Amino acid sequence: MNEPVGHTFAGFANLSQKSPVKEITVDLTPNEASRLEKYCNQTGKAVMDVIRELIQELSLT
Could you tell me if residue 20 is inside a domain? Predict the structure, then answer.
């Protein structure tokens, strides 16, 4: 079983000037962290932008 690990992404170091409303910590497995990092490198998107986009796509019923 993969254990969650702490990982700091470059995208987190350059947060925008906006004040966050909520701050969250996400525990990712090494595989999840690697996939997220590769996706960000391929798309040029910041980690925070990818997470925000995924949250905005959630369907609420």
Answer: no
10 sits in which H/E element: helix 10-13
| 10 part of a folded domain | no
Distance (Å, whole) CA 3 – CA 37? 18
- Single pTM value for the model: 0.63
Q: Over the stretch 7-26, which tens digit does the pLDDT of each residue have? A: 555 555 455 556 667 888 99
User: Residue 34 has which token pair?
Assistant: 């690697």
For every residue of 12-59, DSSP letters joined together read: HHT--SSPPS------B-HHHHHHHHHHHHHH---HHHHHHHHHHT--
Phi, psi torsion values for 3, nearest 5 degrees = -90, 140
